[in-house]
Hints:
The chain has helices at 2-14, 16-32, 37-51, 66-94, 101-115, and strands at residues 56-60, 120-124.
Amino acid sequence: MLRFVLNVLWLVFGGGIVLALGYGVAALICFALIVTIPFGVASLRLASYSLWPFGRTLVPKPGTGVASGVANLLWVLLAGWWLALSHIVAGLALCVTVIGIPFGVANFKLVPAALWPLGQEIVESP
């Protein structure tokens, strides 16, 4: 029940809707460019994760190969570093207040996903 409450508060006050919309727009752009469709799929995964982060975690997907590693390097160079930086800045800003600490931690949890999204999957945390 606590996860549900935190996720609803995240949607309203933590920026979950804004993050998900941003990742969704990035996914649409990637889908339109055809060659970047794998990045669009990763962006949709990030949108889903940023919409409902509490009670979920990111784990390596079995069976991913060298291609996802190379694509992740491209992702980090083109988009991942500034996405991760924005999550770090937002997380630090939210951790200034006691009420914002859970939302700051959720932003810090999104940093690895923003940096290295391909070859990962989102699962329910125990």
